[in-house]
Specification:
Largest sheet: 6 strands, mixed
Distance between the termini: 40 Å
Structural class: alpha+beta
Radius of gyration: 25 Å
Strand content: 35-45%
Number of strands: 21
Number of helices: 8
Helix content: 10-25%
């Protein structure tokens, strides 16, 4: 549905050693919610704005549904208002002098090819129904809550029935509870319509929850592309492992290689790691998520890493422990535990070897 080839963007006055977007290429399949994820300044919003036509690339190609909307070599640069897109911004951008209905219908009432009033009425009503705002049609848009105003913005983006929905940090201005509810509503609308969507966020949890596919960016380049489960459970780079979610990271040495790899770490051994490509004596990085440990209050029968509770926080569905072990702090998450441990308590950790992500240390 969307194809990007060798896309470059450099801003005047920026560091001449790097581009804001540095020759990236990727494809967004039809009907997917495709998320651009990364830290501030990584190029994700610039990439979205180039797809929208709000920023002009310095080089590359952008096609939507098989039609070029930008091609530097052919001199094609379709303006934003002629691209088959709808866009939702971080700010609600509702007009205070208009009702909800007037805000949503506005894209249909501007430009040369205005549809007839009955068509405007029908399409606007359909968009309002889609986001659950039918009963608010006659209200002033600014009289609504933040979440409702963002729904107005979503309905306005969909009213022209675009081929592509672009969302630039649409939930950043909402509180945590409302943000979670709105991301579910956006996902529901996207799946109900089957519309292709490109979603920009720096929030890892948001990206994992809402996406069909995640593209992680850093310094204008693509780090990794994959399904949320793959990005989280089997990352292919240290940056991915540490940026997406929480990861315990430590170094180790391969003591036994093969189908039952054993790695020696400062905390203890990990036996049974999947590491067919590892060899004896290699230095490696090991990554384990907080939920990839069994926490014992007493020494278990088998081998375990010992540690001391530094402090813990209660998250509602789990306890999040900070445990001092071998001079570093490990994060361990325990579910279904009624009473938390206290500072100074000794614990014994059993790492899940099957969940360990192992990477060679760069030489």
């Amino acid at each position: 549905m969307i194809t990007i080839r060798d896309l470059f963007k450099r801003y005047p006055g920026r560091d001449i050693t790097r581009n804001a977007v540095d020759g990236i290429s990727f494809e967004v399949p039809e009907g997917q919610l495709f998320t651009l994820l990364g830290p501030s300044g990584c190029g994700k919003t610039t990439t979205l704005r180039m797809i929208a036509g709000l920023e002009r690339p310095d080089a590359g190609e952008i096609s939507i549904a098989g039609e070029y909307v930008y091609d530097a070599k052919q001199g094609i640069a379709v303006p934003a208002n002629r691209r088959p897109i709808g866009m939702v911004f971080q700010s609600y951008a509702v007009w205070p002098h208009m009702t909800v209905f007037e805000n949503v219908s506005f894209p249909l009432t501007v430009g040369k090819s205005k549809p007839a009033k009955p068509v405007v009425q029908e399409k606007t009503q359909r968009a309002l129904e889609l986001v659950g705002l039918t009963e608010y049609a006659t209200r002033s848009a600014t009289a609504l809550s933040g979440g409702q105003q963002q729904r107005v913005a979503l309905a306005r983006a969909l009213v022209r029935e675009p081929k592509i929905l672009l969302l630039d940090e649409p939930l950043s201005n909402l509180d945590a509870q409302l943000r979670e509810r709105m991301r579910e509503e956006i996902r529901e609308v996207q799946q109900k319509l089957g519309i292709t969507a490109v979603y920009v966020t720096h929030d890892q949890n948001e990206a994992l929850a809402i996406s069909d596919c995640i593209m992680l960016m850093e310094s204008g380049q693509i780090v990794e592309v994959g399904a949320p489960q793959q990005i989280y459970r089997t990352p292919r780079s240290a940056f991915t492992a540490t940026f997406v979610g929480i990861a315990n990271e430590f170094t180790g040495t391969v003591e036994r290689a093969g189908t039952d790899t054993k790695i020696v770490t400062p905390h203890g051994n990990i036996a049974g790691v999947a590491g067919d490509d590892l060899t004896h004596g290699q230095s490696v990085q090991v990554f384990l998520r907080p939920e990839d440990f069994i926490l014992n209050r007493k020494q278990p029968a088998g081998p375990a890493w010992s540690g001391t509770v530094s402090f813990c926080t209660y998250q509602g569905d789990c306890w999040d422990y900070h445990i001092e072990s071998a001079g570093t702090t490990l994060r361990v998450r325990v579910h279904k535990e009624k009473a938390g441990l206290k500072r100074g308590d000794t614990v014994y950790l059993e790492p899940d070897a099957a969940a360990a992500v192992v990477m060679l240390v760069a030489s």
